[in-house]
Amino acid sequence: MTAATGVGPDADPRAVGPADRTGTARPAVTVVGIDAAGRPPHPGARDALARARLVVGAARHLAALPAPPDCPRVVLGPLAPALDRLAAAVAAGAPAVVLASGDPGLFGIVRRLRAAGLPLRVLPAVSSVAAAFARAGLDWDGAAVLTAHGRDPGPALNACRALPAVAVLTAPGAGAAEIGAGLAGWPRRLVVAEHLGTDAERVTWTTPEEAARRAWADPHVLLSLATDGSAPPAVGPVRTDNQPAAAPAGGWALPETAYHHRDSMITKSEVRALAVARLRPRLGRLVWDVGAGSGSVGIECALLGAAVIAVERDPDAPVAANAARHGAHVRVVTGHAPAALRDLPDPDAVFVGGGGTDVLAAVVARRPARVVHTLAALDRVAPAVHLLRDAGYAVDGSQLSAARLADLPGGSVRLAATNPVVVLTGERP
Question: pTM here?
Answer without folding.
Answer: 0.77
